[in-house]
Design a protein that fits this description.
single chain; 118 residues; mainly alpha
Length: 118
């Protein structure tokens, strides 16, 4: 004999009893009607959470579409404003050029008239 009090056979039997007790406990829990109620309530809460998440995702998608449309609209408005600014600048430049030409022509005419008087 050895110094080990529980022998191999005794340890195996104890392990088998523990497995059997755990299995019986599991079967008892599975047969419990309260467990079924808790599981159905849990499934219902999960379905509610999923529905809420789907609604939230749909709202996010709609917001994303609205934001994209606003961005496109702002882009269009910026492009139109840039066009208007470019047209206004071109108009000012042409007016300024006409004014310069008129001044130049006036100086030229004044020089001509001075040279004809001599």
């Amino acid at each position: 004999m050895s110094f080990k009090q529980p022998g191999l056979l005794e340890r195996q039997q104890a392990a088998a009893k523990a497995r059997k007790a755990a299995l019986e406990k599991f079967h008892a829990k599975a047969a419990d009607p309260e467990l079924a109620e808790r599981l159905t309530a849990r499934a219902a809460r999960a379905a509610d959470r999923k529905a809420i998440k789907n609604v939230r995702d749909a709202e996010k998608a709609e917001k994303k579409v609205r934001d994209a449309e606003r961005a496109r609209q702002a882009e269009r408005e910026a492009a139109l404003e840039a066009e208007r600014a470019a047209a206004a600048k071109a108009q000012r430049e042409s007016e300024l050029e006409a004014e310069r030409k008129a001044t130049r022509d006036a100086r030229y005419a004044a020089r001509k008239s001075r040279s004809k008087r001599r």
